[in-house]
Write a structure and sequence with these properties.
six-stranded antiparallel beta barrel, about 500 residues, rod-shaped, nine-stranded mixed β-sheet, conserved putative lor/sdh protein from methanococcus maripaludis s2 fold, OB fold (Dihydrolipoamide Acetyltransferase, E2P)
């Protein structure tokens, strides 16, 4: 080829190439767009939860005592009434022995008090009979003496004065008896209160009771002595002599005086015996405290016997379910009411899952859910939304919800379950594909094609499903850019290519 022809060919090729490059440089890019239209949205919320029993149950010890045997381990499935924990019964045996001793002691105390009350009542009755007899005999002798003296004595002023003096002394002595009787009653009441309600130790209590007993005896002795003085003054009043008494009359008078003194001594002794018996009878007259103590001791014995039966029976499962945790081992001592095991009932099952703060407003009670365990799918409903957030393994606060599984099958608790919750749907709403929706610090937005350019437009987002998102802020029929790199076309001249959603 000649040199000139070769140069011409090269020049021609260069001209063609330059023209092609210029065409490519000034031809607008084409972007894919979709038309914003109204449609129905059926949003769902998917997540992973764990299977649990319908409710958690804490099992408590039925008795105080040592655990003899534990019949369960975590993961066991048990039925209502299955024995979970066994106990030694030595604690209950000791309680029964102590309660039986208390009952015997209370019964003996009550029997002894009843016997003393009978004894003191008999003493009062005997003394009353003696006093009545003495009063009758005294009246008879007094009448005889007055008849005898009225026939042989002249009434003189000195005799009347002496009798008045004796009467005054008798009145003073009777007042002293009343005062002594008041002090005696106070001491007897104090004795009774200390004996029935005393809270001191046995030695101190016995010391107080002994001191009061001595005081009571002192008052009784004083009263007896005062009664003897009264009897002597009464006898002296009757024995005031007069001149002119004949020997045989005087002998008869002295005999009556001796009989009168004997009757007064007997009357004084009987009255002292009555007062002593009445005071002791009063101290033991109220049996309520002793009867109450016996009833309490018998109740304690019944309780101890009941506790023994519980100990022999052991602690049983209150419901059907699965043991999740054992809290005691054989040999441990537990108080009644101590937790011994944790379990979950298996009358039904649920899935517990964590929901973020962004998704929880969409979750409502009663919403349907699909639950996948392994290769099987079950239906369920949202049954609970906890009102207190929990922290997940990443340290974020999330809301916990429960989905009740609609199935009679027995599940293994703790397994993972894939959950899809069907949220509230929206019908005939303006929507865009979720792939066309973006978010920054100012909110959610889309890219709109119009007049040959692309613009950024912020929107309010409503319900979403796997394909579409409800939006407000744009008009129906808007051309939405469906390009991963749509941001690169903002404010540039482009062509659109409408594609189907």
């Amino acid at each position: 080829m000649k040199k000139g022809l070769k140069a011409a060919i090269i020049a021609a090729v260069c001209v063609v190439g330059a023209g092609s490059g210029a065409y490519c440089l000034f031809t607008p890019d084409t972007v894919n767009v979709v038309i914003a239209e109204k449609t129905d949205i059926s949003p769902v919320l998917s997540g992973i939860g764990k299977i649990e029993g319908s409710r958690r149950v804490t099992v408590y010890s039925d008795v105080d005592g040592f655990v003899s045997e534990r019949f369960i381990v975590a993961g066991d499935r048990v039925k209502t009434g299955d024995v979970l924990i066994g106990y030694r019964d030595d604690t209950q045996q000791k309680l029964i022995a102590a309660a039986e001793t208390d009952v015997k002691y209370s019964k003996k105390t009550l029997d002894d008090i009843n016997a003393l009350r009978t004894e003191y009542q008999n003493a009062v009755n005997t003394a009353n009979a003696q006093i009545a007899d003495c009063e009758k005999r005294y009246s008879e002798i007094e009448s005889q003496i007055r008849t005898l003296t009225s026939d042989n004595y002249s009434t003189e002023y000195s005799q009347a004065a002496q009798r008045n003096t004796n009467d005054t002394d008798i009145t003073a002595l009777e007042l002293q008896i009343q005062n002594k009787q008041t002090e005696l009653s106070k001491a007897e009441l104090e004795f009774k209160e200390i004996e029935l309600l005393g809270t001191d130790d046995t030695e101190t209590l016995q010391t107080k009771l002994s001191s009061l007993t001595e005081r009571i005896r002192g008052y009784q002795s004083d009263i007896s002595a005062l009664n003897e003085q009264i009897a002597k003054l009464q006898s002296d009043s009757l024995a005031i002599s007069s001149e002119g008494m004949k020997p045989d009359t005087y002998s008869q008078y002295l005999s009556l005086q001796n009989d009168l003194e004997a009757v007064m001594r007997k009357w004084t002794d009987a009255k002292t015996q009555k007062e002593t018996a009445q005071s002791m009878l009063s101290a033991y007259n109220t049996l309520g405290a002793y009867e109450q103590q016996l009833a309490q001791d018998e109740l304690s014995l019944s309780y101890a016997e009941n506790e023994l039966e519980k100990s022999k029976a052991g602690t049983s499962a209150p419901v059907d379910g699965i043991i999740t945790e054992c809290l005691v081992d054989a040999g441990a001592y537990v108080d009644k009411g101590t937790p011994v095991a944790e379990m979950q009932s298996d009358d039904s099952y649920k899935v517990r899952m964590m929901i973020s703060k962004y998704d929880i407003p969409s979750v409502k009670l009663g919403q349907d859910a699909d639950i996948n365990v392994g290769n099987k799918q079950y239906s369920g409903k949202v049954s609970k939304i906890d009102q207190m957030a929990e922290t997940d393994i990443s340290g974020k606060a999330k809301a916990s919800i429960e989905i009740l599984i609609d199935s009679d099958e027995a599940f293994i608790i703790g397994l993972d379950a894939d959950v899809t919750i069907h949220l509230e749907s929206a019908e005939d709403v303006l929507a865009v594909p979720t792939s066309c929706l973006y978010t920054d610090d100012e909110g959610s937005y889309v890219y709109i094609y119009g007049n040959g350019t692309v613009e950024k437009a912020y929107v309010d987002v409503g319900k979403k499903d796997s394909k579409f998102a409800q939006v407000e802020g744009i008009g129906e029929g808007a051309h939405i850019v469906s390009e991963p790199s749509a941001d690169n076309y903002v404010d540039q001249k482009v062509k659109e290519k409408i594609i189907k959603k």
